[in-house]
């Protein structure tokens, strides 16, 4: 996946609507340009229609005069026809000049224009034939009608070139009116020939009727397209006296088409209907002016729309780009601030005293507020972790000192146990010596007194030794009891350390959860939280190992206390036995006769004493072993406490990487 910065992504997002805006603006401007070009093209074509209409108007008059000239056999309309041809030639020259000057703009109607211009090129030959009376009236009428029809078809095609509704409607009305006017011109030519000849033939009558029908049809078509102003002008022109006279002459021709005798002067007819057709030409000129004005208005509107769309598009682009850059800046600037703070926390000193600006009212302000809340919680967690690690370090140091004291006390107990063992060995040797003396006492009574004295001294020494042994054993028992109490205290300390480790583990777990919620932003802190949790777990395992060792020490200490208590009881028993031995010796001194018997008792007591002292020696040896194990356990506890202290210091070092508020 391609990685992009948020700024680049937002600019890309902004780019698409801008491209869409440019595209649609370009399309709109292109449509307006096409509309402008179409309007200008229609204007050019309308000018062509005006030029063609002017030529048609003169050609229509020439057609009527030619028909009268040919019908009269050249006797009438000779001068008028000559003047009319000059008028027609003037309009033809204007038309040709316009076509030559606007050749490219006439491309939409080029085929129809070429056909009409080709028909127009034959007008000279037709005129020559008509002047020499070598052309029939029907042929003349057909040529002029075909020529005029080519140009009226051209005007009709021009009406089809516009795609604008209003302009197309006006041109269609204009074309329909030109065709209606052409039918009026045909009516003029037809009746001019009929009135000159004085009668209708069947073909001419049918043609005349079809001309009237076509004229009415084109006028109805014109009424369908024309606006109220044009219709009002046409109505005004068609209610003139000339129009009424034409209508009367037309009715007379229709009524008398079989018998003739129209009683209509052809010259009057031609003059009157020409006046009517000239009035229609005024309507035509107004229609052409309206078409030209509409084309100009559409072209100007399209041109204005192009400029307007360009200005609006440019303004929208500028506003969109400026607004987009402002929007991007308003989003990326706080993100850069947040990124810098996170980078400083991840790579720098872990300053937890900084806060983001949460005064914004948008989503970034909400993110900043939640980030500050997270930092506050993290600050509290780290503070509690720092406090807990300090307590763990202090407890570890205390455990270490206690273990050292336990080791020292165990060494002292071991030394005292060795002393007791030595004394027990000496007592055993003394007991053996007593037994030997008792054996020697049987050899002679003379030595009995001395032996008794010696035995009394030995017994007294034994009593003292046994007292000393009892005292030392009691001291050792008290020491071992204190060791047991220390073990209990250490156990309580270990439980405290376990609670601290559990709390540290819980805090580390909470920190890991908060870091997971923070996502990528809390990944660095999640690593620290995992290290804290791992350290807490190692602390828990170490405290559990120490607790096991302490429990073993407590059990073995209790066994040692029990053994020492038994040793004390044995020593006390030995002391009693020694006391009884002293009493026996005193009795020997008083009862020398019973010395042998008493010596045997002393020997027996000495043997018992020897067994007792041997038992004491064995017990003291066991005490020594237990004390040595206790010392070893205390050393291991000291080592574990030292490791716990180092781990607590490492945890303090990790926590110290964060800067907390004082």
TrEMBL record:
Q: Which residues cross the membrane?
A: 311-335
Per the record, the domain of life is Bacteria
Q: Where in the cell is it found?
A: Membrane
| GO annotation terms (biological process) | chemotaxis; signal transduction
Supply the Pfam families for this chain: HAMP (PF00672), MCPsignal (PF00015), NIT (PF08376)
Q: What is the lineage of its organism?
A: Bacteria, Pseudomonadati, Thermodesulfobacteriota, Desulfuromonadia, Geobacterales
Domain spans labelled NIT: 50-298
Where do the Methyl-accepting transducer domain residues begin and end? 388-624
Gene Ontology cellular component terms for the protein in this record: membrane
The protein, known as: Nitrate/nitrite-sensing methyl-accepting chemotaxis sensory transducer, class 40H, NIT domain-containing
Keywords annotated in UniProt: Coiled coil, Membrane, Transducer, Transmembrane, Transmembrane helix
Question: What is the similarity comment for this entry?
Answer: Belongs to the methyl-accepting chemotaxis (MCP) protein family.
Annotated GO molecular function terms are: transmembrane signaling receptor activity
Ranges for domain HAMP? 329-383
Does Membrane appear among the keywords?
A: yes
User: Where would one find coiled-coil regions in this protein?
Assistant: 634-661
CDD domains named among the record's database cross-references:
HAMP, MCP_signal
């Amino acid at each position: 996946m391609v990685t992009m910065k948020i700024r680049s992504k937002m600019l890309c997002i902004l780019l698409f609507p801008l491209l869409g805006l440019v595209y649609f603006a370009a399309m709109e401007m292109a449509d307006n340009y096409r509309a402008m070009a179409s309007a200008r093209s229609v204007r050019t074509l309308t000018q062509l229609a005006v030029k063609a209409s002017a030529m048609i108007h003169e050609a229509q008059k020439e057609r009527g005069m030619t028909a009268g000239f040919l019908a009269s056999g050249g006797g009438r309309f000779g001068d008028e026809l000559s003047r009319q041809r000059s008028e027609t030639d003037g309009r033809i020259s204007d038309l040709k000049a316009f076509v030559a000057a606007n050749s490219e703009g006439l491309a939409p109607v080029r085929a129809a224009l070429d056909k009409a211009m080709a028909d127009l090129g034959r007008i000279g030959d037709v005129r020559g034939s008509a002047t020499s009376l070598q052309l029939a009236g029907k042929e003349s009428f057909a040529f002029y009608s075909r020529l005029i029809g080519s140009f009226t078809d051209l005007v009709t095609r021009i009406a089809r070139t516009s795609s604008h509704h209003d302009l197309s409607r006006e041109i269609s009305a204009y074309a329909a009116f030109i065709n209606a006017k052409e039918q009026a011109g045909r009516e003029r030519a037809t009746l001019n020939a009929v009135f000159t000849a004085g009668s209708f033939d069947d073909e001419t009558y049918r043609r005349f009727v079809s001309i009237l029908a076509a004229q009415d049809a084109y006028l109805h078509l014109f009424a369908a397209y024309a606006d109220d102003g044009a219709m009002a002008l046409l109505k005004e022109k068609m209610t003139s006296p000339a129009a009424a006279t034409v209508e009367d002459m037309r009715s007379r021709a229709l009524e008398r088409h079989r018998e003739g005798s129209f009683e209509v002067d052809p010259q009057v007819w031609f003059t009157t209907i020409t006046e009517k057709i000239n009035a229609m030409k005024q309507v035509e000129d107004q229609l052409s002016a309206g078409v030209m004005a509409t084309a100009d208005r559409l072209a100007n509107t399209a041109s204005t729309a192009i400029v307007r769309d360009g200005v609006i598009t440019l303004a929208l682009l500028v506003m969109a780009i400026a607004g987009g850059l402002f929007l991007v800046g308003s989003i990326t600037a706080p993100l850069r601030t947040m990124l810098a703070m996170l980078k400083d926390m991840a790579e720098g000193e872990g300053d937890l005293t900084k806060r983001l600006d949460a005064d914004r009212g948008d989503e970034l302000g909400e993110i900043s507020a939640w980030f500050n809340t997270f930092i506050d919680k993290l600050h509290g967690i780290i503070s509690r972790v720092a406090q807990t690690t300090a307590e763990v370090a202090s407890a570890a140091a205390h455990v270490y000192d206690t273990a050292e004291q336990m080791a020292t006390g165990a060494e002292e107990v071991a030394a005292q146990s060795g002393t007791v063992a030595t004394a027990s060995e000496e007592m055993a040797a003394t007991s053996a010596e007593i037994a030997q003396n008792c054996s020697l006492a049987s050899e002679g009574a003379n030595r009995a007194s001395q032996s008794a004295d010696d035995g009394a001294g030995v017994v007294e020494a034994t009593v003292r030794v046994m007292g000393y042994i009892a005292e030392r054993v009691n001291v050792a028992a008290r020491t071992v009891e204190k060791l047991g109490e220390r073990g209990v205290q250490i156990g309580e300390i270990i439980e405290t350390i376990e609670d601290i480790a559990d709390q540290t583990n819980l805090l580390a777990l909470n920190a890991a959860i908060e870091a997971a919620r923070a996502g990528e932003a809390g990944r660095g802190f999640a690593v620290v939280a995992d290290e804290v949790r791992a350290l807490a777990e190692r602390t828990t395992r170490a405290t559990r190992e120490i607790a096991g060792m302490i429990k073993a020490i407590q059990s073995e200490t209790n066994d040692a206390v029990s053994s020492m208590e038994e040793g004390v009881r044995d020593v006390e028993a030995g002391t009693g036995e020694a006391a009884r031995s002293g009493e026996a010796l005193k009795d020997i001194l008083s009862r020398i006769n019973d010395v042998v018997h008493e010596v045997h008792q002393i020997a027996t007591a000495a043997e018992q004493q020897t067994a007792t002292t041997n038992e004491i020696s064995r017990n003291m040896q066991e005490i020594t072993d237990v004390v040595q194990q206790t010392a070893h356990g205390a050393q291991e506890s000291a080592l574990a406490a030292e490791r716990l202290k180092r781990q607590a210091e490492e945890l303090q070092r990790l926590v110290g990487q964060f800067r907390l508020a004082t």
